[in-house]
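Appendix B. Raw example, untouched.
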Amino acid sequence: MIKYLFGMVGALGGMLAGAWLMLAPFALAYQLSGAAWADPTYTDFWSGLAILVVSLIGLLMYVLGLVGELRRRGIIEPREEPEAQQAQAADMPAVGGAQAGSAADVEQILLPLVNAMLEDMQDQRRRREGNGGPQGAAPNQQLDPERRVQQ
């Protein structure tokens, strides 16, 4: 377990070294403010960024390894799903069950929307054909402005 702690301390040290390389040209003022970057500034900044990213990935890996080791030893309790989710998962068939249930749910949610859209389209068709829309307007008044100009 101590190997994870040493690894985390080393990765944290690498992150600090990478951050210092990125900031050193500006902190030590050998890169003038507002001036074009010199070659040493590019080298320090991009190598520092690479060291910082690699150290961050290493730190995350050591932390995940430590958590896994602590769970394996029983120091940290493993995550458990709530009983309701376990029961629901046990009742579902292995293949296609989740897709069939979700498709029925989506159908029930979208059915009122589709019906409302259908009714609206039928009302618009009646108004365009002049078969007694709600205001009894003439058919050419219901056309969009571009078509009225052409007529």
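End of appendix B.
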